[in-house]
Design goal:
heterodimer; A: mainly beta; globular; B: about 110 residues; six-stranded mixed sheet; five-stranded antiparallel sheet; about 60% strand
Chain lengths: ~110, ~110
């Protein structure tokens, strides 16, 4: 049974389109995250949510809008996609904002 | 701002050839230092947490150590299945809910 799952695994789209990535965790954690991993493998946090409340927004463009309908889900909607948005996006979860985090398999976004 | 620097960027080892990875960090009060392993096409997988200087953790052929400025991940007698990218991250005492990652060290172990 997958602990942290993301859909879709691959996303190929044109510049200017809007897309969403979904994430679900079944670990019972209260904190969820979105990370971006660029082509150089550098993993950078984008958002942290605790009990559905936004805790961290790391100077991410307004085109990115996370939504947490409940503690087990954190979705990411991206408007007006740009070439520079191409990357792998990882969802993760932990308890109480701890650094022991469990990551999903990633969503590879390619913007053409 | 928290900074994490990992070296080397890449490491090629012969099976059985032990080596160490370095993680230097700057953080305003360390809550914890974390090591993760990432296989190609997969998400990072948690390995260790270290909280204070002098602490050590072991798991199979891996051993992580911590000083006030850096952490080492020692790989003893590596096997090809140890090939992966190893990521180091820090969490500041004043900044819950945020991990700052280094760029990683990609380890390749040849049989």
């Amino acid at each position: 049974d997958t602990a942290v799952s993301q859909t879709p695994k691959y996303l190929v789209t044109q510049m200017g389109n809007d897309k969403s990535i979904k994430c679900e965790q079944n670990l019972g954690h209260d904190t969820m995250y979105w990370y971006k991993q660029d082509s150089k493998k550098f993993l950078k946090i984008m958002f942290s949510y605790n009990n559905k409340e936004l805790i961290i927004n790391e100077t991410v463009p307004n085109r990115f809008s996370p939504k947490s309908p409940d503690k087990a889900h954190l979705n990411l909607h991206i408007n007006s996609l740009e070439l520079g948005d191409s990357a792998v996006y990882f969802c993760a979860s932990s308890q109480d904002g701890g650094g022991t985090q469990y990551f999903g398999p990633g969503t590879r976004l390619t913007v053409l | 701002e928290d900074q994490v620097t990992q070296s080397p960027e890449a490491l090629r080892l012969q099976e059985g050839e032990s080596s160490s990875l370095n993680c230097s960090y700057t953080v305003s009060g360390l809550r914890g230092l974390f090591w993760y392993r990432q296989d190609p096409g997969k998400g990072p997988e948690f390995l260790f947490t270290l909280y204070s200087a002098g602490e050590e953790k072991e798991k199979e052929r891996l051993k992580a150590t911590l000083t006030k400025k850096e952490s080492f991940l020692h790989i003893t007698a590596p096997k090809p299945e140890d090939s992966a990218t190893y990521l180091c991250a820090v969490q500041a005492a004043t900044n819950d809910y945020k991990l700052s990652f280094g760029a990683g060290t990609t380890v390749t172990v040849r049989a």
